């Protein structure tokens, strides 16, 4: 199976986008949302690292050969250490991929001339400076302006009921980035992809918005194509399993809306 992990329901939007790709939809997927302990964005780096490692161990225990850490906060605060130390030692044949590097590559492929870029993300992602580092590795002269949006995740987790408060909040969070005259904006939190339409509406048309549900499926397809030794190990019965550490009302409702049917979500414990 391919494991998809997120702190909450944001990753469901990534999975939904993956399943829209005919080739990718043939594989088996195991989704895990750590709804009980979200939001990760305001947690300490140590806590996010431990939660992420627990989730990865769990997904490996369930037989996942490849895991996508769809959560940017987890990717920013845990991935490098997990890939370089833990994975090499305990599961050298399996893979854990994050969302930061593929996003950075996509932005620079689509907008190679970009000079002023905005990043909208959680506190954890912003403080890690991961996006800044990754962009500068490829394009030294790029100016990256980061903005935290701490109230967005809880509002998005509320589903449609949260929407009336959304626009005002978005304007407040995006104002500092507009003052910096950004040319493009990266939605560097899986949750934000759920409100990309509203974000695009409050921004001037000239600003291109990069949303990870439009990036990760494409990058996953390329990865599987380039790594037949991993691809070969993934089942293709079209199975989907949904797991969460807390089955919140928002999660159930969003899953149903996304997949147009009642989704069975199983409750699990991570520690
Ligand atoms: N979905 C997570 C991300 O991509 C953040 C949500 C949270 O704060 O738990 O960063």
The number of E-state strands comes to 10
Average pLDDT, rounded to a whole number, is 95
Principal-axes shape call: globular
Give unreliable regions as ranges. none
Bound compounds: D-glutamic acid
Can you give the helix content as a percent range? 40-55%
H-E string: EHHEHEHEHEHHEHHEHEHHEHE
Main β-sheet description = 6 strands, parallel
Give a structural overview:
It is a single chain. The protein is of the alpha/beta class and 271 residues long. The chain has two domains: 2-98 and 215-267, 3-Layer(aba) Sandwich (Rossmann fold); 100-212, Rossmann fold, CATH 3.40.50. It is built from 13 helices and ten strands. A six-stranded parallel beta sheet has the order 4-3-1-2-9-10, with helices on both faces. It has a four-stranded parallel beta sheet with strand order 6-5-7-8, with helices on both faces. Strand 9 (240-244), helix 13 and strand 10 form a beta-alpha-beta unit. Helix 3 (45-61) packs across helix 4 and helix 5 crosses helix 7. The chain is globular and about 50 Å long. The two termini are 22 Å apart. The model has no long low-confidence stretch (mean pLDDT 95). It binds D-glutamic acid. Residues 6-8, 10, 38-41, 71-73, 122, 125, 153, 189-191 line the site of D-glutamic acid (DGL).
């Amino acid at each position: 199976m391919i494991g998809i992990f997120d702190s909450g329901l944001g990753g469901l939007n990534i999975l939904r986008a993956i399943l829209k790709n005919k080739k990718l939809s043939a594989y088996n997927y195991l989704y895990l949302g750590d709804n009980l302990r979200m939001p990760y964005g305001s947690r300490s780096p140590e806590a996010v690292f431990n939660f992420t490692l627990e989730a990865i161990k769990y997904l490996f225990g369930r037989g996942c050969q490849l895991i996508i850490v769809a959560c940017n906060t987890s990717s920013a605060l845990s991935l490098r250490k997990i890939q370089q130390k833990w994975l090499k030692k305990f599961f050298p044949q399996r893979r854990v991929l994050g969302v930061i590097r593929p996003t950075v590559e996509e932005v620079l492929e689509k907008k190679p001339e970009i000079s002023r870029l905005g990043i909208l993300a959680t506190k954890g992602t912003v403080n890690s400076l991961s996006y800044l580092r990754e962009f500068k590795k490829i394009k030294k002269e790029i100016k990256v302006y980061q903005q935290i949006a701490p109230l967005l995740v809880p509002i998005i987790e509320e589903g449609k009921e949260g929407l009336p408060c959304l626009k005002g909040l978005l304007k407040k969070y995006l104002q500092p980035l507009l003052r910096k005259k950004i040319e493009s904006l990266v939605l560097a939190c899986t949750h934000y992809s759920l409100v990309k339409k509203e974000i695009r509406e409050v921004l001037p048309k000239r600003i291109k918005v990069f949303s990870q549900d439009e990036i990760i499926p494409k990058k996953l397809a390329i990865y599987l194509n380039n790594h037949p030794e991993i691809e070969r190990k993934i089942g293709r019965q079209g199975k989907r399993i949904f797991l969460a550490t807390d089955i919140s009302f928002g999660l159930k409702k969003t899953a149903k809306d996304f997949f147009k049917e009642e989704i069975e979500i199983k409750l699990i414990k991570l520690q």
